[in-house]
């Protein structure tokens, strides 16, 4: 048995409190008697009563001490090691289909991560982590594959019970990476790992404008944006048709300059209200400091004239205010993100602020939500993705690693996949192309992996099986015992007080 919080044993000093309190008796009452004969008779009766009282009190003190003892030991977190059944032993030793783990000497790949080069996004580095679950150092070879071809090999020596990490450079990063551990005890369940490489292409932004020069220049200067611009009539207040960029692809984000509401085409949209009646300039204040829109920004010297408009949407989140009026409102409808800016972006006092390009970059990054789709999940976890547009359910399909289509649910721009019971790459197909996420086994090292599986005896008879230990926490049982003892103590205390009265 072991204790997870041995410092709690200092509480054992409290065990002296009940006995000390029991010795603090009330002073004896002064009594007047007529003669010594009556005094002796009273002393005999009091002696019998005191004997009974001391006996009752001793029992109550013992129960109180036991309650404190149970509580203190429970706080210390006792854990009892119990022998596991044979089925659990097989699972702990790496039964197929379970998480990453292994017997003595077994190696596993526990991590695979790709990082693009900030200066040259087409290239990058790949980190591969191997773990040794055995008591001896092991040699192995790691092979890195990209889109079905080997792009790197590395020999590694993994220390006993330790981890070895290696970084492999890749000149041209593709879409799917897989690392394989080449060793004599390799198993498919944990000797291979997958990783989907993040998309490095810029966010496709379509600017619908009526000629705002500074707004267009700020967006065009952002290297993370591929900007297309279209001029639209002044009498149009909302676009209803799908919006395509100059390359014929659908836009990731639409910046609607002069719209009164978001385009009804499904894309995430930055809505800039048309210039109109405005209040006097007021300091810009942050209403939601944790929102990504205001990341790395301070507005101490920003004076803006809030545009008067309708009330904020019921499901909207007010991020910025000026003069008590909301000027930045963020909300989401079935995966479509919308950000309304109720200020005049033609005002030179606003667009010439050094933080204005950062504000626009934060807005586009939040609307695109590139980093929110999980590219790697654990076996059995559900996946919830934000698609590039709003599609009908029959326009979206998800394919498992074996090539079979699996069930998925589409609501607006949100895709949900609940069946991820096979490791490998999953392909999401939409009218705008394919995307990939990967599923890997969980990493759950088993405490008893350092023990060898018994080998058969030379005589042919099997040796006695030794099962790995499983741990049982005792804190809940001790707390239940303390509650029971408190109930017993309360009952006997009421009985004793009743007899004294």
Main sheet attributes: strand count, strand direction, barrel closure: 9 strands, mixed
* Radius of gyration using CA atoms only: 36 Å
Average residue pLDDT = 78
Tally of contiguous helical segments:
7
Class by helix and strand content? Answer: alpha+beta
**In whole angstroms, how far apart are the ends?**
47 Å
The beta-strand count equals: 27
Strand order of the largest sheet: 11-10-12-13-18-17-16-14-15
Total discrete domains:
4
The first-level CATH class name of the largest domain = Alpha Beta
| CATH-assigned fold name of the largest domain | Rossmann fold
Strand content: 25-35%
Describe this protein's structure:
There is one protein chain. The chain is of the alpha+beta class and about 500 residues long. The protein folds into 4 domains: about 1-80 and about 475-500, no CATH class; about 90-200, Immunoglobulin-like (Sandwich); about 205-370, Rossmann fold (3-Layer(aba) Sandwich), CATH 3.40.50; about 370-440, Immunoglobulins (Immunoglobulin-like, Sandwich). Helices cover about 20% and strands about 30% of the residues. It has 7 helices and 27 strands. A 9-stranded mixed sheet has the order 11-10-12-13-18-17-16-14-15, with helices on one face. Helix 1 (about 15-25) runs antiparallel to helix 2 (about 35-75) and helix 2 runs antiparallel to helix 7 (about 475-500). The longest helix has about 40 residues, at about 35-75. Mean pLDDT is about 80; it is low at about 50-55, about 85-100, about 235-240 and about 445-470.
